[in-house]
């Protein structure tokens, strides 16, 4: 769930003989206190704090999520998230809950998770940027990486939406809730991989679909910068909201921006409607009131730099910007259909798009291999 140095890269493999012993040490607080050493803070969110701990005997790293404080509010949220992890179960593109403890001290409960060695999506982007810049290559994510992100998230979301007797909505798909790992057998000397493994995490806002009569019908509960259209936010959440948020996440990853209306366009729009505008003398843009009012906006991935600036409300284009292919943009655009009933579903993505992505990646690899062969 955050970057680790090379000597800290061991994570739990639940097939190893010592895995059961490690899990016992996690569940027993006295053992945990004696055998685990806190290494770093991996992340701080609205519901809790995530730390990395090292199991001293085995050098295994574990991610530990605990409430922000000891209040009943945050305790209940983590108890709910534990139940969500249990309901969802295991999947290659969902972060694994190893176990949990309701008696963790000084603040509990605690959720124990696998560590993803490349951090979240933003951390992976930063590492990729640094690597490519140092090697004199274009800094933006490769097209293959964006395809791989779409593939892995399609598989993960389809499991959430359709893989159980009860269907679920994640309700907060965003870069911070997508963690990244190196593929098995990847040689660290080869740097940051262009085809890592992407996994969904943070199930604090998971909701069943359709919402049961006694369930929470308060609507959108996720991060405003990745929210679906306003009319969808007011209703009970549908799986289509996760698909829209995935589109916003991919835009942010590919173009290195927040996928929302620019400040300039927002002010012009508000003034034209005779509505109040933020106080420009302070820093009101971070307040929930204004964050909720700046909509996410579609921007194509295959547009030219000039088109993005003049037609798609992107005042600043990333360094060394290169348009992605129209083929990628066509699949990405399907995530952004404003009519939620016409928007592509995770099931359709898995059936129609994932096999196509496999073919695209295989073809790209073949071309690289052919180009590296000595000419006869």
TrEMBL record:
<keyword id="KW-0808">Transferase</keyword>
<keyword id="KW-0418">Kinase</keyword>
<dbReference type="InterPro" id="IPR053235">
    <property type="entry name" value="Ser_Thr_kinase"/>
</dbReference>
<dbReference type="GO" id="GO:0005737">
    <property type="term" value="C:cytoplasm"/>
</dbReference>
<protein>
    <submittedName>
        <fullName>Kinase-like protein</fullName>
    </submittedName>
</protein>
<dbReference type="InterPro" id="IPR000719">
    <property type="entry name" value="Prot_kinase_dom"/>
</dbReference>
<dbReference type="InterPro" id="IPR011009">
    <property type="entry name" value="Kinase-like_dom_sf"/>
</dbReference>
<dbReference type="Pfam" id="PF00069">
    <property type="entry name" value="Pkinase"/>
</dbReference>
<dbReference type="GO" id="GO:0004674">
    <property type="term" value="F:protein serine/threonine kinase activity"/>
</dbReference>
<feature type="domain" description="Protein kinase">
    <location>
        <begin position="36"/>
        <end position="357"/>
    </location>
</feature>
<dbReference type="GO" id="GO:0005524">
    <property type="term" value="F:ATP binding"/>
</dbReference>
<dbReference type="InterPro" id="IPR008271">
    <property type="entry name" value="Ser/Thr_kinase_AS"/>
</dbReference>
């Amino acid at each position: 769930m955050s970057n680790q140095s090379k000597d800290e890269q061991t994570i739990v493999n639940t097939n190893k003989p010592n895995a059961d012993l490690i899990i016992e040490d996690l569940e027993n607080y006295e053992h945990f206190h004696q055998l685990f050493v806190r290494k770093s803070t991996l992340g701080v969110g609205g519901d809790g704090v995530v730390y990395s701990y090292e199991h001293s005997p085995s050098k295994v790293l574990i991610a530990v999520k605990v409430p922000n404080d000891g209040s009943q509010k945050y305790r209940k949220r983590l108890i709910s998230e534990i139940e969500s992890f249990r309901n969802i179960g295991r999947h290659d593109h969902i972060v694994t809950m190893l176990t949990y403890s309701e008696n963790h001290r000084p603040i509990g409960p605690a959720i124990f998770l696998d560590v993803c060695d490349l951090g979240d999506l933003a951390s992976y982007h930063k590492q990729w940027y640094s690597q490519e810049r140092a090697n004199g290559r274009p800094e933006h994510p490769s097209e293959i990486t964006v395809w791989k992100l779409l593939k892995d998230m399609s598989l993960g979301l389809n499991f959430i939406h359709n893989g159980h007797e009860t269907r679920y909505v994640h309700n907060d798909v965003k870069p911070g809730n997508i963690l990244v790992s190196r593929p098995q057998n990847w040689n660290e000397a080869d740097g940051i991989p262009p085809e890592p493994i992407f996994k969904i995490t943070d199930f604090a806002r998971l909701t069943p679909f359709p919402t049961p009569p006694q369930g929470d019908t308060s609507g959108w509960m996720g991060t405003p910068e990745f929210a679906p259209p306003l009319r969808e936010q007011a209703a009970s959440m549908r799986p289509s909201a996760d698909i829209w948020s995935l589109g916003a996440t991919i835009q942010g990853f590919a173009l290195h921006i927040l996928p929302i209306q620019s400040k300039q366009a927002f002010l012009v729009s508000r003034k034209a409607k005779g509505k109040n505008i933020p106080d420009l003398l302070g820093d009101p843009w971070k307040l929930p009131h204004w964050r909720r009012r700046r909509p996410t906006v579609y921007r194509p991935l295959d547009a030219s730099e000039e088109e993005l600036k003049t037609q798609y409300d992107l005042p600043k284009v990333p360094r060394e910007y290169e348009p992605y292919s129209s083929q990628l943009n066509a699949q990405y655009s399907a995530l952004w259909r404003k009519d939620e009933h016409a928007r592509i579903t995770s099931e359709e993505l898995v059936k129609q798009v994932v096999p196509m992505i496999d073919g695209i990646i295989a073809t790209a690899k073949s071309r690289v291999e052919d180009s590296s062969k000595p000419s006869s």
